[in-house]
Design a protein that fits this description.
Radius of gyration: 16 Å
Strand order of the largest sheet: 4-3-2-5-6-7
Number of strands: 8
Oligomer: single chain
Order of helices and strands: HEHEHEEHEHEEE
Low-confidence stretches: none
CATH class: Alpha Beta
CATH topology: Rossmann fold
Shape: globular
Length: 170
């Protein structure tokens, strides 16, 4: 059996399909009547989702939470870490926040960001393109559920430049 034949099946999201997915995700949020004041992107994959949702939902107030967890394919730090600059809780105070990410895999990253928002914001909900069945966080808005590894269009190709020391040790 060749390596290709023994490799696990993968979910592949193309740029075109991402356009469809993000629009349908926005429609789920709108149809639910949720009117976010802020879209909070979980960097890096959530930046694409947050930008698309911000445009589709007419939310100009976008914030970013830089969270490091994955270090490679199915390789991660022991716990996710919020990297500086950490969002200012005062900027989020009393707001309706839509947390945007590309995937709820283990749920640890989303839990970290949700917990950060707890008690500060009026309401926090999560929107993801993909949710895995073993995620500890059940997102309110999910475009597709899968148990496969996902090839995202923004991370399928290797970096143009390899930089050392980009992952902080826990």
């Amino acid at each position: 059996m060749s390596a290709a034949e023994s490799a696990p099946e993968r979910e592949t999201l193309t740029w075109e399909l991402f356009g469809t997915a993000s629009r349908e995700l926005a429609e789920m949020v709108a149809d639910d009547g949720y009117r976010a004041d802020i879209v909070l992107a979980i960097a890096r994959g959530g930046l694409f989702v947050a930008g698309a949702l911000g445009y589709a939902l007419d939310v100009k107030n976008l914030h970013v939470a830089n969270v490091e967890f994955y270090t490679g394919v199915d390789e991660r730090l022991p716990v996710p870490i919020m990297l500086p600059p950490v969002p200012n809780a005062l900027d989020l105070s009393g707001a309706k926040v839509l947390v945007a990410d590309d995937v709820a895999d283990t749920g640890a990253t989303l839990k970290l960001v949700r917990d950060f928002c707890a008690g500060v914001v009026a309401d926090v909900r999560c929107a993801v393109v993909y949710e895995k069945p073993h995620s500890t966080v059940e997102c309110e808005y999910v475009w597709r559920r899968t148990d496969r590894w996902i090839n995202f269009p923004w991370s399928t190709e290797p970096p143009v430049v390899q930089r050392e020391g980009q992952v902080l040790d826990a």
